[in-house]
Design brief:
Helix 3 runs antiparallel to helix 4. The protein has a four-stranded mixed beta sheet. Strands 5-6-7 form a three-stranded mixed beta sheet. Helices cover 63% and strands 6% of the residues.
């Protein structure tokens, strides 16, 4: 049997005979390997391979968490076949794929799905993309409070094939759809058959609202170690639930965005495979931050110009500029990343701002003392001037305290005003600390060296 790499090379040849026998060979691949192959192919090639496979196999592949470009691939298929694949997926997966499609292609596919699926999709698409409603599925097991355990198990067995998950079931008030309690399949299996369901369920389970941000939903599922969490509308009725596998996708997406922003790259720059991203698009995603940081970096030039005479009289001061501002930038970047992580995990909030600032400034003080001792020895060894060595050591101490304090407060301030803390990324903090650190350095040098 051909390997994934051999199949990819055959398909990439784009010769008529290269597709002969491909369908038989890819049919033998396990889903994970076949997804790897499709992810490496161009869109039209991936769609061609998918077209060769039976619809159930296509559904299985589109349901794989590692499958990329799902919406773009389905756009290349006949709308009827794309609709058949969509109908075989869970509600949340269908919604996610439809959101990836262009408006024209979306309308073409929606015109081919059943009225029931179309109505459900339109309902789910009405929620904001990055909310609990936007990632939830409506295919959950509803139980009646009048049921016994035996009735509940029989009901679950009858609807299991239609539901995405049967491990978490919800007991709803038949009058208004309000949530009365939650019960797991494990709880039901371990309970007595004639026991009322209301005696087995857990009343007042953890819930989220449909307009809650997806990141807060992920945090809640992680905090309470849940397999799923029910989603409520404003009137208290249950409209769906979010599963732990949906949360994993959310966490990957959020972490990717944070990493990109910390690097000064707009989210969306890596939403396609590396070689599928046009160079002009990559430039557009990067240029904004680079221009901003370049302009902000001119502050450093202004500071150097203001202290031109001091630098001319003590040339040795310039030897240590890269060392000092680099240390301050690194210390600030470490603090920023630590604080952003803690904010994301909900370990700290705006109310902890001054405690965080005090903790980080203390850390900066201790780090500055330790590095300052090393800096004093290094400066004296290079210049044999103990006045200059004291200047360097003092500057290191002050810069470490300053950069860690700024690095702790800026992300919290951003969070307070509704700005993603990751936007105020390490490059921005580094640029800010570079300019202010240079000002601190030359000011301290002027005070100490002018007294000689």
């Amino acid at each position: 049997m051909a390997t994934v790499e051999q199949l990819r090379e055959r398909i990439n040849l784009r010769l008529e005979e290269s597709f002969m026998g491909i369908s038989e060979q890819v049919a033998d691949l396990v889903p994970e390997d076949l997804v790897e192959l499709l992810n490496q192919l161009k869109l039209i090639e991936a769609a061609t391979v998918l077209l060769m496979l039976p619809v159930p196999r296509g559904i299985e592949l589109m349901d794989q968490p590692t499958m990329t470009r799902r919406g773009a691939i389905l756009e290349k298929l006949d709308p009827t076949r794309a609709a058949m694949i969509l109908e075989g997926l869970s509600a949340d997966e269908r919604t996610d794929i439809i959101q990836q499609m262009g408006l024209t292609e979306r309308r073409r596919v929606l015109s081919k799905v059943s009225n029931e699926v179309k109505t459900e999709l339109e309902h789910l698409l009405s929620y904001e993309e990055h909310t609990a409603g936007g990632i939830m599925t409506t295919e959950f097991v509803r139980l009646d409070p009048a049921m016994t355990v035996s009735d509940a198990l029989r009901h679950i067995r009858s609807v299991a094939r239609e539901k995405e998950s049967i491990y978490a079931c919800y007991v709803l008030d038949p009058a208004n759809g309000h949530l009365l309690g939650a019960v797991s399949l494990r709880d039901l299996v371990m309970a007595e058959m004639d026991q009322p369901i209301i005696k087995v369920m857990r009343p007042k389970p953890v819930t989220v609202h449909a307009d809650d941000d997806q990141e807060s939903v992920a945090q809640k599922i992680a905090k309470y170690n849940l397999l799923a969490v029910p989603v409520l509308e404003r009137d208290g009725s249950v409209v769906g639930f979010v599963t732990v596998d949906d949360v994993i996708d959310v966490m990957i997406e959020e972490q990717t965005e944070d990493i990109l922003r910390m690097a000064g790259v707009e989210p969306g720059a890596l939403d396609k495979p590396y070689f599928d991203n046009p160079i002009l698009r990559v430039v557009r995603k990067r240029i904004g931050w680079l221009l901003f940081l370049f302009v902000a970096g001119t502050l450093t030039s202004k500071v150097l110009h203001a202290f031109e005479s001091e630098l001319a009289s003590v040339v040795a001061l310039t030897f240590f500029v890269p060392l000092l501002i680099g240390t301050g930038g690194n210390a600030g970047a470490q603090t920023v990343m630590t604080v952003i992580r803690s904010l994301s995990l909900g370990e700290i909030g705006v109310k902890h701002a001054w405690r965080v600032a005090l903790r980080e400034s203390t850390t900066g003080l201790l780090v500055g003392l330790l590095i300052g001792c090393v800096a004093f020895g290094q400066a004296y060894w290079v210049t044999h001037d103990w006045h200059l060595a004291v200047t360097i050591a003092t500057t290191i101490l002050v810069i470490c305290v300053w950069s860690t304090t700024v690095g702790s407060l800026v992300p919290i301030a951003a969070h307070r005003f509704g700005v993603d803390p990751a936007v105020l990324s390490a490059p921005l903090i580094t640029t800010l600390v570079d300019a202010t650190g240079l000002l601190i350095y030359l000011t301290i040098a002027k005070i100490i060296l002018d007294q000689i």
